[in-house]
Specification:
By secondary structure, the protein is α/β, with parallel strands linked by helices. The protein has ten helices and eleven strands.
Length: about 280
């Protein structure tokens, strides 16, 4: 079972083994929401199922959304219904990828864990690594899907609410880690949300810092050293990850797990939910 990362070579071997497997293409372009669909149509891993951030991995306007923010999480029940609609079974290995540095595939990775599906891994290096390894690709609409019933299991990922963040603000049992670019974290610019700044006391680690020059995650040793330096003695188990809307926080969460620091929590509503209420404190610089 692959739980965090899977290499292109490992995925090729898994495909030839004929073991139960489903691959998801999560490519997306935040400033051009149709871009991911176009990229998928042009080229995707042979047999990959499309997973779109807006249509499948968010629940904008849904009364049962599990978080707020610009990309609210669907409820676990809605997630299970979608997983069943594409034919995922609990005994399948799920592999997720994108072509944007794991920025979007990490969202589905976390959601699968949240649904209780531990056999989920991110393709290290994304589509670029797959093509470089000679992996098969195809174009067009993708495979025919056979719907099934997907049964939820106990969550294997922790979702933190705004109320919990507020309750533990400035308390040593909570370390907030913000994955946004540093100028946004400092409040120097804010291209997406109505308020600039960050949650008071948060630490900053832009999500792209987890990748090496080839677009793959850095080694466990390097990641461990970097996160321990950033945390400066804080307990890794106290970390709650967030970003702008609960998407780009996931590479940090995955990287900590790859580093052997455990699976930390996610504040999915993130800055877009936090700053929606003017009564909540905001810090800058």
């Amino acid at each position: 079972m692959y739980r965090t990362l899977i290499s292109a070579a490992e995925l090729q071997t898994l495909m030839t083994s004929k073991k139960p497997l489903m691959v998801f293409d999560c490519s997306f372009e935040l400033m051009r929401p149709t871009g991911g669909d176009q990229q998928y149509q042009e080229s995707h891993i042979a047999g990959a199922v499309r997973a779109d951030l807006d249509r499948h991995l968010s629940a904008k306007g849904a009364p049962d959304a599990a978080s707020g923010g610009r990309h609210p999480l669907p409820s676990r029940e809605s997630l299970a219904a979608w997983l069943g609609s594409v034919g995922l079974h609990p005994d399948m290995q799920a592999v997720v990828y994108d072509r944007q540095g794991a920025n979007y595939s990490g969202r589905l990775w976390w959601m699968l864990k949240w649904a209780g599906h531990e056999a989920a891994a991110v393709l290290d290096g994304g589509l670029q690594a797959w093509i470089a390894a000679g992996g098969a690709v195809e174009s067009g609409a993708g495979p025919a899907l056979q719907a099934s019933h997907y049964p939820l299991a106990a969550p294997q990922a922790e979702l933190v609410t705004t109320q919990a963040i507020l309750k533990h603000l400035a308390h040593p049992t909570q370390t907030i880690l913000d994955a946004r670019a540093t100028p946004r974290f400092r409040g120097e610019v804010e291209p997406l949300d109505p308020v600039a700044g960050h949650i008071p006391g948060a630490l900053n680690r832009p999500f792209a810092e987890n990748l090496d020059a080839n677009g793959c995650f850095k080694s466990p040793r390097v990641l461990k050293d970097e996160f321990e330096t950033l945390l400066a003695g804080r307990d890794p188990a106290s970390v709650v990850h967030h970003c702008g809307s609960g998407v780009s926080a996931l590479p940090n969460l995955i990287a900590m797990e790859v580093a052997g620091l455990g699976r930390s929590a996610l504040y999915a509503g993130s800055w877009s939910e936090w700053c929606s209420d003017p009564s909540r404190p905001v810090a800058k610089s």
